[in-house]
Amino acid sequence: MTRHAYRAALLHALEDPCRAPAEAAWAYHEDGLLVVEDGHVAAFGAYTDVFPALPPDTPVTPFPGKLITPGFVDAHIHYPQTDVVAAWGSQLLDWLNTHTFPAEQAFADRAHADEAAAFFLDELLRNGTTSALVFGTVHKTSVDALFEAALARDMRLIAGKVLMDRHAPAGLCDTVETGRADTEALIRAWRGRGRLGYAVTPRFAVTSSDAQLAMAGQVAAAHPDVLIHTHMSENLEEIARVGELFPDARDYLDVYARHGLVGPRSVFAHCVHSTDDALRRMQRAGAASAFCPSSNLLLGSGLFSLKQACDCGVTVGLGTDIGAGASFSLLHMMGEAYKVGQLGGEVLDPLHAFYLATLAGARALKIDDQVGNLAPGKEADFLVLDLAATPLLARRTGAARTIAEQLFVLSILGDDRAIERTYLAGRLAHSRDRTPPSRALYP
Ligand code: GUN
Ligand code: ZN
Fold first, then answer.
1. Alpha-helical segments (H) within 44-107
2. In CATH, what number is assigned to the domain containing residue 30?
3. Parallel, antiparallel, or unpaired for β 26-37 and 40-46?
4. Do 64 and 80 share a domain, yes or no?
5. Phi and psi for 54 in degrees, rounded to 5?
6. Three-class SS of residue 172?
7. Residue 406: enclosing H or E segment and its boundaries?
8. How many CB atoms neighbour CB 52 within 10 A?
9. Rounded mean pLDDT, 268-280
10. In-domain check, residue 442
11. DSSP string, 120-138
12. Which residue minimizes the CA distance to atom 5 of ligand 1?
């Protein structure tokens, strides 16, 4: 048995601040001790409470002045879109055709997918993201490449092959039957390996026929352990197009619901323009939404209302939506979520933003029994945050009086530079100060 303890300030979320009193929603210890045994959390608490019970031979690593938190959970991201980050000048449908579809076609090549998967996962870890719900491309091999790389890093990651059988370049279209066969083959090949999970992944209603959506619903029903992951109600032009393509549907959600794609295992990216009625139906079904503020701002999609989703009782995680979103950092997303709130007349509390980036994401992905906070028994995916990573961060966090103020400064000024270390299941997976410069930049 291996046991190791880490001494620092500790913070994790315990409950949804929409539904719990503030004092029950999170736990913070200014001088805390985290004990990890065989990759799982054995204890989390105040140093003075936990240390006396620690077996005397346990090594203790002190991180003075640092903050330990759970790893971040990215509730919606596309690994093949790393190469379209920061594309200028368009909104969703034009952006897909101009930038995204050409980049995704390169994933027919396994060597390209392997290189992109390794870069992507290392970028997640550099940014403190330890779990994510990930879109591949239409190519089965894109998901093989990603799962192989995630297994090698022992990440808790959920991904799926994109299903799209129309309104896209021929090289990116599957059919009902090839989509079914590839999805079934991936579930069979990867089920139960490491900490991986599968998501049935129709891209969105525009690019899947009714027959393909029906197939997606059948595959999801046949495999109770898989998620359903798609986009919904992101952009007004997209919503109008879905209305034209599915004139009999009550609304966008109904397009999915009619095929058994709305349930407790569903995650819908965006929901920027969802009505109260649609959100309430999602809540009744147990479906979750992924709020992607950077993407929504860059593509000009609109302002998601966290208050509306909270009032309707929908579980909301936080997503980068790389490559429409412009950063891999969930810290940065917390800041972007705050700015979206400001534009919409809502003020996001920093601890609520932290909940979105950790436990809420784990809940949306149905992995909160394993990760999302550092409760004893959970997998020890955690971060060591450097509140003084830059001179300005040091100056501003140094003047902060509360953990909420510190978190807010981190969310506005922080990014990968603030992630000093990332641990996966108790094992050091990224150390900012030890990572050599990228080989691509310095051959
Ligand atoms: N809707 C359908 N596909 C996509 C995508 O790749 N990115 C975003 N942001 N929205 C989508
Ligand atoms: Zn997306």
1. 47-50, 92-95, 101-105
2. 2.30.40.10
3. antiparallel
4. no
5. -80, 130
6. helix
7. helix 403-413
8. 7
9. 98
10. no
11. HHHHHHHTTEEEEEEE--S
12. 96
State the first-to-last Cα distance of the chain, in angstroms, to the nearest integer: 40
Question: pLDDT tens across 191-214, in order?
Answer: 999 999 999 999 999 999 999 999
206 CA closest ligand 1 atom index: 2
Question: Encoding tokens for residue 57?
Answer: 């031979």
- How far apart CA 270 and CA 256 sit, in angstroms, is 15
Asked if residue 216 has pLDDT above 60, the reply is yes
| Residue 106 DSSP SS3 | helix
**Please, which residues bridge with residue 77 across strands?**
134
172 within a domain of the structure (yes/no)? yes
Long-range contacts: 401-404, Cβ < 8 Å, 24+? 403/9, 403/11, 403/28, 403/351, 404/349, 404/350, 404/351
Query: What value does the mean pLDDT take over residues 70-92?
Result: 97
Best residue among 79, 93, 94, 100 to mutate for probing ligand 1, ranked by most atoms within 8 Å of CB? 100
Ligand 1 atom with minimal separation from the 207 CA: 2
CATH number at 148 reads: 3.20.20.140
Q: Cβ atoms within 10 A of the Cβ of 207, count?
A: 22
Query: Which residue in the block uniquely carries the two structure tokens 């060591």?
Result: 384
* Distance of alpha carbon 266 from alpha carbon 163, whole angstroms: 15
Cα 316 versus chain centre, distance = 11
Helices (H), 356-402: 361-364, 391-399
Ligand 1 pocket check for 321: Cβ under 6 Å: yes
Encoded tokens for 173: 């279209």
The domain in which residue 427 lies consists of 3-70+374-433
